[in-house]
Amino acid sequence: MRVPIRVAAGAWALAWVVGGVVLNGAVLAAMGADLESLTITEIAVSSAMMWAAFAVALVVVSRRHGSGDLLVDYRVAVRPVDLFAIPAGVAAQLALIPALYWPLQQIWPDTFSNDELAQRAEDLVGRASGGQVVLLVLVVAVGAPLFEELVYRGLIQRSLSAGLGPWAGLLVAAAWFSLIHLAPVEYVGLFAAGLVFGLGLLLTDRLGPAVLAHMAFNVTGLVLAFRAG
Question: Were both Cys, which of 24, 146, 164, 213 would link to 89 (CB 3.0–4.6 Å)?
């Protein structure tokens, strides 16, 4: 499936506005949520609104520009060899990210301190108790990797690669993935993680390695946050 960049970008933008702004705002307002301190349940609902909008966008793009088969059009497939992506995701979290931030911490120790880098994950973990821990794990370790890889690798990276070339597509998709998280202190790490996930797709032409690496990366981050808490 060759999706023009303008189509992929337009589908992403429309889904982001509808899911992330309109539906999200309406549902969270109806729940009486405090946007400054969402509960784990509210975060799960918020994420579901975004994922639903992106799922619709993916289906529409597949039907108009592909075969209509999501598994085929977005290269959703996993083979045993793809399990290599799991240690790659763990290594990205435990070794690659710290190595990239080390020089930044020497220059700007307050801005890029370990406490600043871990704050968002530790805040999430701190809000979870009882059954909400399970909900948090489902959102962070299952839902986010699956939907984000479908969107940012299956749709965005493959569209960019078709128009700009595979390596440019990899770089731009990783930057896109990083910036959309709206967490400046994490941009370097998220960009590097996006490169790791995107390489899985680039090397195999399957989404399986990207999803597995992303899951392993997020699970490792959660474990570190729980241990710190």
Answer: 213
The Cα 135–Cα 133 span in angstroms is 5
Least confident among 119-128, 158-167, 205-214: 119-128
Separation between Cα atoms, residue 160 and residue 163, nearest integer Å: 5
Is 53:12 a contact under the CB 8 Å cutoff? no
Instruction: Count Cβ atoms within 10 A of the Cβ of residue 214 and give its class: 0-12 exposed, 13-18 middle, 19 or more buried.
Output: buried
DSSP type of residue 92:
I
> What residue type is 145 in one-letter code?
P
pLDDT the model gives residue 122:
87
pTM for the model stands at 0.96
Residue 88 and residue 204: Cα distance in Å, rounded?
Answer: 14
